[in-house]
Design a protein that fits this description.
Blueprint: H1 7-13, H2 24-53, H3 60-83, H4 95-128, H5 138-157, H6 181-218, H7 224-240
Length: 241
């Protein structure tokens, strides 16, 4: 194994460019990255604060949206850390710091994607039971949020604890030179599967809603409150999307 080698050694092995001086492109990327990271931090802090202080938002869907904001807040921190450890600074990183940099990104992105899936499933349940808010208890929501972060941490930290290419250089990725191609393939497919499930869930929601709205338009027996609830649900799903 090549645990005592430098980051540059693995970049050379994967034939990925590793600069030793600041280019105009590097400065622009870092400046833009830090700006976006600050915006991400501030906007998601506003979302979390609004959910905490407003009692009208103390429902499962808003807790999940708050957790999504927390995941995106974490992503902002991860990207800010990346901006301070990129460009020519990449060559100066130890292997441990490089893995921390990548793990922060992978964990935050996975938490965000899995949380989006949880929100999709929650909205699916509320639409089909014709309720604006699900009857899920706060305890179950907290358990769900805990599971989301455990899943994200497992996927994000796996490379640091063995699923890397430090002992098999031929398996190194050209995109992330210390990562195994098999791990990146697994991570990409996992996120793609989650995305496809979300597409199926939301497609099912809108097909169901369209049929319901068509029936409502043809019959006058539907209570106005029923129609109002359906419209409110559609608005909520649309805003989330």
């Amino acid at each position: 194994c090549f645990y005592n080698e430098t980051v540059g050694f693995f970049y050379n092995n994967s034939r990925k460019e590793l600069t030793t001086y600041w280019r105009t492109k590097d400065v622009l990327v870092v400046a833009l990255g830090l700006t976006v990271s600050v915006i991400v931090l501030l906007t998601n802090l506003l979302v979390i604060t609004a959910i905490i202080i407003n009692r009208r938002f103390h429902y499962p869907i808003y807790y999940l949206l708050g957790n999504l904001a927390a995941a995106d807040l974490f992503a902002g921190i991860a990207y800010m850390f990346l901006m301070f450890h990129t460009g020519p600074r990449t060559a100066e990183l130890s292997l441990k710091t490089w893995f921390i940099r990548q793990s922060l990104l992978d964990t935050s992105l996975t938490a965000s994607v899995v949380n989006l899936l949880a929100i999709a499933v929650e909205r699916h349940q509320t639409v089909f039971t014709m309720q604006l808010h699900s009857k899920m208890s706060n305890q179950r929501v907290m358990i769900l949020i805990f599971c989301i972060w455990v899943t994200a941490l497992l996927l994000g930290l796996i490379p640091s604890y063995g699923w890397h290419c430090l002992c098999a250089l031929e398996k190194c990725s050209s995109m992330a030179p210390l990562y195994s191609r098999s791990y990146l393939t697994f991570w990409a497919i996992s996120n793609l599967v989650i995305f496809l499930i979300m597409v199926v869930v939301y497609t099912h929601i809108f097909i169901y809603v369209k049929r319901k709205m068509t029936r409502m338009s043809k019959h006058t027996s539907f209570h106005p409150r029923y129609k109002e609830t359906m419209i409110s649900l559609v608005k909520t799903v649309t805003i989330i999307l």
